């Protein structure tokens, strides 16, 4: 059967790639969306020197897991005050890029509630105005720089929304491992495991294709080699580059498949138990792999390319994650067997859970 792969994002990769930003802006003015520590790390000063008058403003208050209550004032102030900026430059991890994707699509009214209403109803939001987006990840894991998806949280309602429109594809991604040298060990680990999850989730996926498989298998193999080395040598720019490229490949893979069961489980683990996303979506990977094996011969073959012989692959995957200091059982996070069974059964009914090749089988 024919396969189709689509990704419209221009990707610039390598040490020093940030210097391409003025060329990508091509004279347009940009608002920088980033995290609070970016200023003390010198990143905003670096952008100011690079962009000069093209840097039209800064939003540096992005917090992890952007919540509707935090996004509302940002969104409305942005569309009120940043009319002359044509581009958003998102500098940071997944939360900065997700925030930028929410900001880039403007409601006719300028009110954030219009976007939230569409997300709540599960219908496509129709933006009246759109800003271009250039994504500059400072972590090796999110993949959001080459996908149209953004996660928006509502902690008060205990809900998670997925924003994805044809307008929310970034126009360009700048993947510069030099920007990742300051990442502390916990964030490096969480980001790397997030990338591993993206790659594996795109393989045990009903939307997988031959091209996404190529990216995913390469990402898994590189993460298995590079991530343990990087955790022992955080200041090695070559290892940072290997992980950045692996995360980019994983992003390319799931940009066409979306994620699956492990991510569906992760949302509840983050909302109810406060687990960081990279841990929440990676600790169940061995369990999900065990469920995936045997459902489809073609998927089994790709999983074997990525992980080796399938009779020992779940144990190998669990051992890899646990040697990095992350437990792989629900009980390790205070979840009983009964609660875990209920959580997995519920996750299989979600939009991401239905992408899993075993979703139609009994839980």
Q: Which key terms come to mind for this protein?
A:
14 helices, six-stranded parallel sheet, alpha/beta, globular, 363 residues, two-stranded antiparallel ribbon, 13% strand
Q: What is the tally of beta strands?
A: 10
Number of helices, where a helix is a run of at least 4 consecutive DSSP H or I residues: 14
**CATH architecture call of the largest domain:** 3-Layer(aba) Sandwich
The CATH first-level class of the largest domain comes to Alpha Beta
Main sheet record: 6 strands, parallel
Strand line-up across the major sheet: 1-10-7-4-2-3
Q: Output the radius of gyration.
A: 20 Å
What does this protein structure show overall?
There is one protein chain. The protein is an alpha/beta fold. The protein folds into 2 domains: 169 residues, Rossmann fold; 162 residues, Up-down Bundle (Dehydroquinate synthase-like, alpha domain). It is built from 14 helices and 10 strands. Strands 1-10-7-4-2-3 form a 6-stranded parallel beta sheet, with helices on both faces. A two-stranded antiparallel ribbon has the order 5-6. The chain starts with 9 loop residues before the first strand and ends in a 15-residue tail after the last helix. The mean pLDDT is 96.
């Amino acid at each position: 059967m024919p396969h189709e792969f689509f990704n419209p994002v221009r990707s610039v990769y390598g040490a020093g790639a940030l210097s391409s930003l003025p060329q990508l802006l091509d004279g347009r003015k940009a608002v920088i969306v980033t995290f609070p520590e970016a200023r003390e790390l010198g990143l905003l000063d670096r952008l100011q020197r690079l962009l000069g008058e093209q840097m039209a403003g800064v939003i540096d208050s992005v917090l992890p897991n952007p919540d509707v209550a935090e996004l509302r004032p940002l969104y409305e102030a942005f569309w009120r005050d940043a009319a002359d900026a044509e581009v958003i430059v998102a500098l940071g991890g997944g939360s900065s890029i997700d925030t930028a994707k929410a900001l880039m699509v403007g409601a006719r009214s300028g009110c954030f509630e219009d976007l939230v209403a569409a997300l709540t109803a599960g219908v496509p939001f129709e933006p009246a105005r759109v800003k271009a987006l250039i994504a500059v990840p400072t972590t090796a894991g999110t993949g959001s720089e080459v996908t149209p998806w953004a996660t928006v949280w509502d902690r008060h309602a205990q809900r998670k929304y997925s924003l994805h429109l044809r307008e929310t594809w970034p126009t360009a991604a700048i993947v510069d491992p030099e920007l990742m040298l300051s990442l502390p060990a916990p964030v490096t680990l969480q980001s790397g495991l997030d990338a591993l999850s993206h790659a594996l989730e795109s393989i045990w996926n009903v939307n997988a294709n031959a091209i996404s498989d190529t990216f995913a298998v390469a990402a898994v193999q590189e993460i298995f080699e590079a991530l343990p080395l990087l955790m022992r040598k955080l200041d090695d720019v070559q290892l940072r580059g290997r992980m950045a490229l692996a995360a980019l490949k994983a992003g390319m893979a799931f940009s066409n498949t979306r994620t699956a069961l492990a991510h569906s489980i992760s949302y509840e683990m983050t909302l109810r138990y406060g687990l960081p996303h990279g841990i929440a979506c990676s600790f169940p990977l061995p369990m999900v792999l065990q469920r995936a094996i045997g459902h489809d011969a073609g998927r089994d073959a790709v999983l074997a390319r990525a992980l080796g012989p399938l009779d020992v692959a779940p144990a190998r995957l669990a051992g890899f994650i646990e040697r990095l200091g992350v437990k792989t059982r629900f009980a390790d996070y205070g979840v009983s067997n009964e609660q875990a069974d209920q959580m997995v059964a519920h996750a299989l009914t979600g939009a991401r859970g239905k992408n899993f090749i075993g979703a139609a089988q009994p839980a």
